[in-house]
Amino acid sequence: MAGQTRPGITERKTRLDGSTEEFACEVLLLEPGRRAVLLYVLDREWRIADSALVVPAGSLTVSHYWMDRPYNVYHWLHEGRTLAYYCNVAEPTEISERLVAYTDLVVDVLLRPSGETQVLDEEDVPADLEPARRVLIARATEAIVTNGRRLGAEVERESRALL
Predict the structure, then answer these.
(1) pLDDT tens digit string along 101-156?
(2) Which domains occur in the chain, in start order?
């Protein structure tokens, strides 16, 4: 993709330690206060810790965000083929005209097109994390794992329709 052809928006990820990371994305779908789908092209190879997955540079990340779900999903595609769906357990998600922001709650779930599911980074949850956040992480992880095939199919359909 040569340059942005769609409106731009910022994705902001805030970690539990308060540090942030921002990405300039393109808008594929934006419903402020409800949901968003953004596009980001990886500028470098991305290796997913604790898995054998390598996402090559140039791959598309189609990011799906909902205000009413305790997670977001990165749909990774390379040369038109789905590599995986990477689910970030998160709270709360803010969706506005210029910004999609969320707090990353450490735990991630990798869903592969084959149906394989892998929960990542559980050992990195801080020991002193408040109980309410621990419950949210457990419930979100269970929802993703239990409904992984359906979630993957939903994200796949919407990504393809918007690209």
Answers:
(1) 999 999 999 999 999 999 999 999 999 999 999 999 999 999 999 999 999 999 99
(2) 8-162 (2.40.380.10)
Residue with tokens 């791959």: 59
Residues paired with 129 in a beta bridge: none
pLDDT one-digit tens code per residue, 34-84 = 999 999 999 999 999 777 899 999 999 999 999 999 999 999 999 999 999
pTM (predicted TM-score):
0.94
Q: State the Cα–Cα distance between residues 26 and 6, nearest whole angstrom.
A: 6
Beta strand 54-55 pairing with 71-78 = unpaired
Closest CA to 72 of 111, 45, 113: 111
DSSP string covering 40-108, please?
A: EE-SS-EE-TTSS-EE-TT-EEEEEEETTSSEEEEEEEETTEEEEEEEEEEEEEEE-SSEEEEEEEEEE
- Of the candidates 36, 37, 35, 38, the residue with the CA atom closest to the CA atom of residue 23: 38
